[in-house]
Design a protein that fits this description.
- By secondary structure, the chain is an alpha+beta fold.
- It has ten helices and five strands.
- The chain has helices spanning about 5-15, 25-40, 65-75, 80-90, 105-115, 145-170, 175-200, 205-215, 220-230, 235-250; strands at about 45-50, 55-60, 90-95, 120-125, 130-140.
């Protein structure tokens, strides 16, 4: 009989493979990739970083929208395991960030100060082209095992293929156009988070969770909902009412 982890793993691969659907939403997809990777690889936090097609790299999704954590992922676009992973198109791991200050001075110091002791990065690649990385942070001084590194690579690979094949099949776009569209979606998410955070006096993390949960509960695309909230087609009060109801029911 399959274990609960094996069942969850199978469900995750099915979800990451099922991109050829009319209501596919790339930001919800990347959020799911981060959440399931953290769960299956047993790490504290996961971020998805993609190429901006101008020689730079940007964090697109994370298991937590806390500003300090997002800054750590943003820092990896300049220095850290993510950059090494992208350069070599190979998994990079460290089980002791405190000893990495000579290799990654800025990132290692900031990560340790934030309570993280181990890190890893897994390339998101298609053939010889690396379009991003799955970045992992852990509060325990435990590196990613060989088996988990292989699993992380499999998750990154199926996600990469899913994203690019979905866009190519539906819109005949180039990889560059696909990634540019994804960057735009991230901007829309940030705008909606800001609107909800200001309207409901919420943290950015809670604003994102509210946005994500409302979209999933109502069968909406995360990006479409975010756009509606940002331009006030949907009033923030609609989502905040749901938030208050959930708090009262607890």
């Amino acid at each position: 009989m399959a274990t609960e982890r094996e069942q969850r793993l199978a469900q995750t691969f099915v979800a990451l493979s099922d991109t050829l659907v009319d209501d596919f939403d790339v930001m919800d997809f990347l959020s799911l990739l981060a959440e399931r990777s953290a769960e299956l690889l047993d790490v504290t936090a996961v971020g998805v970083i993609l190429s901006d097609q101008r020689g730079g790299w940007r964090p697109m999704a994370a298991t937590n929208e806390d500003a300090r954590l997002l800054e750590l992922f943003a820092m990896q676009t300049r220095e850290g395991p993510c950059q090494d992973c992208i350069r070599d198109s190979a998994v990079v791991t460290s089980s002791d960030l405190a000893s990495e200050r000579s290799r990654w001075p800025e990132f290692a110091e900031a990560a340790v100060a934030s309570g993280f002791r181990a890190a890893a990065a897994v390339p998101m690649r298609l053939r010889r082209e690396t379009i991003g990385a799955l970045t992992l942070l852990n509060r325990e001084a435990v590196g990613v095992s060989g088996a988990d590194a292989q699993l992380g690579q499999a998750l990154a690979d199926v996600a990469t293929v899913g994203i690019l094949h979905q866009r190519a099949a539906l819109r005949k776009e180039t990889v560059s156009e696909q990634l540019q569209a994804t960057l735009h979606h991230r901007v829309v998410i940030e705008q909606a988070k800001g609107v909800l955070a200001e309207s409901g006096d919420l943290s950015m993390q809670h604003a994102f969770e509210l946005l994500r949960d409302y979209a999933r509960a109502n069968g909406q695309g995360l990006t479409d909902l975010a756009r509606s909230v940002a331009d006030r087609t949907i009033q923030p009060s609609n989502l905040l009412a749901t938030h208050h109801e959930q708090r009262l029911s607890r």
